[in-house]
Design brief:
Blueprint (H helix, E strand, L loop, with lengths): L2 H14 L3 E5 L26 E3 L6 E4 L4 E9 L8 E8 L3 E4 L15 E10 L2 E11 L2
The chain binds copper (II) ion.
Copper (II) ion binds next to loops.
Pfam families: BIM1-like_dom
Keywords: Cell membrane, Glycoprotein, Lipoprotein, Membrane, Signal
Protein name: Copper acquisition factor BIM1-like domain-containing protein
Length: 139
Amino acid sequence: MQLTTILAALAAAASVSAHFSVTTPPSRGLDELIEDQAPCGGFNTPSTTRTTFGQSSNVTIRLADTNSNVYVKIGYGANPTSFATTLGSTFYAKKGVYNLPFSLSAVPASNNGQPATIQISINGSHGALYQCSDVTLSL
Ligand SMILES: [Cu+2]
């Protein structure tokens, strides 16, 4: 078997074991092999396009790890590296597609119209994993 074939087989195997993905708002990027790298699953550069994000927005994930605590956090500014404010947290025993509950009540009104990053992290059957979605706040 050629090396490229082996690598392709390994990549296919890795994607089958996908831990979790964020479908809404769109993720900055997903690579299951480095999804354990905080704070954004190995993607440290913000998206060039941002999604408008408010209290009526959805945070939707596809969860493939069981027994997972799932956290929604926020960092302020164009490229935050700290996500100190928790907007919501929920435990899910099973795999599935979930709309995560969250509240923006703790977000200062001065952030309206400003860039921010939503960090979605899980701690489940494969440990702690991270994703980030870059948004513009509409409070
Ligand atoms: Cu996993």
